[in-house]
């Protein structure tokens, strides 16, 4: 699924080509935390612990809100682990663009609400209905929703 998808592989390849020296300077970290009895996990590919910066490379040719929420989730995990004042840099090599992302108090409230809602969905006996959105076809978790549809 996510860690073995073609999308993830393409992203790693783009990162290696665009930022060849980064792997030697930054660390890959896996984080976990508990919020409201909900276990949270995240894997950050490139983290500069000295400067408290997450580097997230995106392979697409457009900036999406989901990219911001992904790194905000990582920043929240860092915060839950006692690492304050971290920030993220979203990098779009194909656009030749970077964006600094910081975690705001209202973002934390949104993330807290979201993980509680997701946890409730996980606890339901039946899965929610398939939404058939265009974005689903490129999702790393496509199989979870559409396994019985094909």
UniProtKB/TrEMBL annotation:
TM segments? none
Among Pfam families, the record links this protein to: Cas_Cas4
Q: Which InterPro entries match?
A: Dna2/Cas4_DUF83, PDDEXK-like_dom_sf
Q: Which residues form the signal peptide?
A: none
Which residue range or ranges hold the DUF83 domain? 1-147
What PANTHER family would the database entry show? CRISPR-ASSOCIATED EXONUCLEASE CAS4 (PTHR37168:SF1)
Please identify the protein, giving its name as recorded.
Answer: CRISPR-associated protein Cas4
């Amino acid at each position: 699924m996510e860690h073995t998808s073609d999308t993830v592989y393409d992203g790693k390849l783009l990162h290696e080509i665009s930022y060849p020296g980064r792997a030697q300077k930054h660390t890959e970290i896996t984080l976990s935390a508990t919020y409201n009895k909900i276990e949270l996990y995240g894997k950050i590919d490139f983290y500069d612990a000295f400067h408290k910066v997450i580097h997230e490379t995106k392979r697409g040719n457009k900036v999406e809100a989901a990219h911001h929420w992904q790194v905000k989730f990582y920043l929240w995990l860092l915060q839950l682990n006692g690492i304050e004042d971290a920030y993220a840099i979203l990098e779009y090599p194909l656009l030749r663009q970077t964006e600094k992302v910081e975690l705001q108090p209202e973002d934390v409230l949104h993330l807290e609400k979201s993980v509680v809602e997701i946890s409730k969905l996980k606890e339901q006996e039946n899965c929610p209905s398939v939404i058939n959105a265009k974005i689903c076809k490129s999702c790393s978790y496509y199989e979870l929703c559409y396994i019985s549809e094909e």
